Amino acid sequence: MTASQSRGRSVVWFRKDLRLNDNPSLARTLISGKEIVPVFIWDEEEGGDWKPGSASRWWLHHALESLSSSIEKRGGRLILAKGKPAEILPLIARKTRAEEVLYGRVYDPGGLATQQAVEESLETAGIRPESFNASLLNEPWEIKNLSGRPFQVFTPYWKKARSGIHRASESYQPENLSFADTNSCSSLTTNGLGLAPDHPWTEKLARHWEVSESAGLALIERTAEKIAGSYSKLRDLPGQDGTSRLAPYLAWGLISPRQVCQSVLQVHPEEEEPGAKVYLSEIGWREFSYHLLYHFPSIPNEPLRPKYANFPWLSDNKALRKWQSGQTGYPMVDAGMRQLYETGWMHNRVRMIVASFLVKHLLISWREGARWFWDTLVDADLASNTQGWQWAAGCGADAAPYFRIFNPITQGEKFDPEGKYARHWIPALENIPDKWIFRPWEAPGELLPELGNDYPNPCVDHPEARARALDALSTLKTE
Ligand SMILES: Cc1cc2nc3c(=O)[nH]c(=O)nc-3n(C[C@H](O)[C@H](O)[C@H](O)COP(=O)(O)OP(=O)(O)OC[C@H]3O[C@@H](n4cnc5c(N)ncnc54)[C@H](O)[C@@H]3O)c2cc1C
Fold first, then answer.
1. Cα 216 from chain centroid?
2. Which of 58, 372, 389, 391 is catalytic?
3. Whether 259 and 310 share a structural domain
4. Helical axes 317-324 vs 366-376, angle rounded to 10°
């Protein structure tokens, strides 16, 4: 037996914690003194209907490349495998003589089923599983209302949960981690996992994102210094650089919410800036979304509020395609949908506008919208996406009341007053004066040489669509 084998080994099974800093599984090996056998397993069936979409898989591919190279720099080798973790982990543990498998918990139904199967198979094989909270400030089951039930309204939830922003990160230097020699174990290459879709669309994403833990950490620093303080003033203005863009780094755990909160609190210790307080409460919305998904696991497919189950959504593929491709004729909606398709990300204010437009103006189900976002967002996250769509449709927790129908014209005028955002994503509107930028069909003829050719006319009339939505939705007023 070599000296290193006598120290013992732990398999660290990476899931949605693809990072070397603030990773509780890795921190544990520093306490136990065991060597790390790092493993990632791509189970292409996990999640069923909600297995990762195209943009998310593209992100994962690059995140794994980055993690592999960080581990290599520290003398280790990330084992990449494809298949069922419950079958593969015991084999790797045996082959590397590891006594335990450490991992960060996930909370979506597919991930939870995998975790349960893994724990059973490891126990049968006599290998100890141990899991940690690597992705949230609070565990979903830690926060309960006075009756011991999960919250369904954000404000009281956050009042109870917000002390989680002070939870400390794991403090250690990744340089001190000790990786085992895993050359005896076969591993696929990142390409061999077949994650990144073979589609030119994904090439565009690389122009907008640097996918690595260090890029995420740099963005956290920028958020604390530049974004958080002015967040309450700028966060609703899509033409400004006013939000953190941390969501995709959080989605696969290249960074943790604890790291984000701590950096913000270091610069704004008493949260003296209203911006910092609001910023931290957005991290709270992420937590709340996980709380809901954990306690109500059917919500990716079913409305939280049952009365919406039989809502007469329209099946209108032509309108859906116009919405997806940013061709509705409403500039604020189209700018958002084009930003999404071009960059894999959309500003939150615009997400709310496009979502409301789909479910209310077009009366197309929130599930269709959630699916499109799921496939195209680099920050696709089952908890936050489900919560965002159900909120917009009025069928979720703390949802917008049924009569709140975002007006895509006035929303544009209010939040993009000079049309900077709309013009950026819709070059056909570049020269239209501000007055008509969000209602180009009303502009005098001489200003609109080609409206209808370069940019479509509105696919629905706003007042008519609004009246139709109110009609349909008013049937839900009483349970
Ligand atoms: C219809 C719809 C769908 C959405 N789908 C997703 C999704 O798939 N993944 C996702 O991460 N967010 C989703 N959101 C929430 C929000 O739009 C994004 O988190 C945010 O735009 C990401 O950009 P940012 O990192 O610059 O956010 P910032 O404004 O800088 O916020 C900081 C962080 O707080 C969290 N956050 C902010 N707003 C919300 C919110 N409303 N709900 C939950 N968490 C929030 C995110 O982790 C975000 O990174 C959705 C919102 C809507 C309305």
1. 14
2. 389
3. no
4. 40
Q: Are residues 256 and 343 in the same domain?
A: no
Q: What is the CATH number of the domain that holds 312?
A: 1.10.579.10
Indicate the pLDDT class of residue 1, thresholds 50, 70 and 90. very low
CA of 182 to the centre of ligand 1 (A): 38
Probe ligand 1: pick from 59, 348, 389, max atoms within 8 Å of CB?
348
195 part of a folded domain: no
Domain that holds residue 76: 8-133
- Tell me the two tokens of residue 240: 């400004």
Active-site entry in 35, 100, 213, 282: 282
CA distances from 387 to 21, 114, 158, 475 (A): 29, 23, 15, 23
Looking at the fold, whether 343 and 469 belong to one and the same domain comes out as yes
Spell 180-191 as b/e; 16+ CB within 10 A means b.
Answer: bebeebebeebe
Q: What is the pLDDT of residue 273?
A: 76
Q: What are 266-300's pLDDT values in tens digits?
A: 999 977 778 999 999 999 999 999 999 999 999 99
* Beta-carbon contacts of residue 145 (< 8 Å; ≥ 6 apart): 151, 156, 160
In short, whether 255's Cβ falls inside 6 Å of ligand 1 is no
Q: Is the CB of 392 under 6 A from ligand 1?
A: yes
390 CA to centre of ligand 1 in angstroms:
14
On whether residue 189 sits in a domain, the answer given is no
Identity of the amino acid at 185: C
**CB neighbour list of residue 23: distance below 8 Å, 6 or more residues apart:** 12, 17, 104, 134, 170, 256
Residue 121 lies in a domain: yes
Same domain, 273 and 221: yes
How far apart, in whole angstroms, are the C-alpha atoms of residue 128 and residue 372?
40
Residue 152 lies in a domain: yes
Indicate if 146 and 230 belong to the same structural domain.
yes
* Marked catalytic residue, from 313, 342, 413, 441: 313
238 lines ligand 1 (CB under 6 A): no
* pLDDT tens, position by position, 59-70: 999 999 999 999
If you measure from the C-alpha of residue 281 to the centroid of ligand 1, how many angstroms do you get, rounded to a whole number? Answer: 12
Number of domains in the chain: 3
Same domain as 348, residue 321: yes
Judge whether 323 counts as a catalytic residue: no
